[in-house]
Amino acid sequence: MTTVTEVADAARLWAVRRTYGSGDSAVTALDGVSIGFARATFTAVMGPSGSGKSTLLHCAAGLDRPDDGQVTVGDVDLGPLSEAALTVLRRERIGFVFQAFNLVSALTAAQNVALPLRLARRRPAPETVAAALAEVDLADRGGHRPSELSGGQQQRVAIARALVTRPDVVFADEPTGALDIGSSRQVLGLLRAAVDRHGQTVVMVTHDPVAAAYADRVVFLADGRIVDELSHPAEAQHIASRMARLEE
Predict the structure, then answer these.
(1) What is the pLDDT of residue 181?
(2) What angle do CA 57, 180, 168 make, to 5 degrees?
(3) Closest CA relative to residue 203, chosen from 221, 186, 178
């Protein structure tokens, strides 16, 4: 197995394999995937349904364990960690943005943003939470509960929550899938700004070429393998044409 000798990447997978089921019904979701996510970059992961996109994200984030290979976040090899240690690592070093927002309905926007800090037993400073909300243009919505916010506003709260701990990497799983065009652009602009202004690392799974065009790099999966890659994609149409080839 490869030994980690330097920490150039915020997260990395080496020869990762993940199979579900056994015997004739076994499905290989990842088939020896190796990829690094450099610090202060925005990577979009695309591919046909069943290509392994979500499994890649889950393995990289420590939500699922690979059958073989190695996953690191910063300088930490996730393989030897217990479930309790993985939970601590995710709280302190990983941010998540999901399609369904996953906000706590009983908490206000400010309390949702502060939640990762409280779970890590760190007292959230009010000015830190306020700054995180201001960063996503919700400075005046801190006292509102999710039911009092639009879908786009809820996703922006989720982004503030993901960024408040300044994690090594933010994993976003179809973050614009439930949003209208205007809200989608705003959310994608915030993720882009997190990279450009704050040196954050973002890895986003998406099916949308327009969303992928915000990234520095687009990685394409098919049948559990990386089959193509675009650096600094110029426009969504170019990304869409690459996707179309995989779906033929």
Answers:
(1) 95
(2) 30
(3) 221
Residue 105 lies in a domain: yes
Predicted confidence (pLDDT) per residue in 90-104, tens digit: 988 999 999 999 999
For residues 215-222, average pLDDT: 96
> What are the tokens at 185?
């652009």
Phi, psi of 153 (to 5 degrees): -65, -40
Which amino acid belongs to residue 150? S
Averaged pLDDT, 150-178: 96
Decide if 3 is inside a domain. no
CA distance 16 to 58: 12
The secondary structure of residue 24, as a DSSP letter, is: G
Q: Is residue 57 part of a domain?
A: yes
Question: Does the residue 193 lie in any domain?
Answer: yes
The continuous run of DSSP H or E covering 66 comes out as none
**For the chain, how many structural domains are there in total?**
1
Task: Report the CATH number at residue 128.
Answer: 3.40.50.300
Cα gap 184→58, rounded to integer Å? 23
Q: How many CA atoms lie within 13 Å of 33's alpha carbon, on the beta-carbon side? A: 34
Provide the residue range defining the domain that includes 170.
Answer: 9-19+28-247
Residue 234 has pLDDT above 90, yes or no: no
Which secondary-structure segment (H or E) carries 233?
none
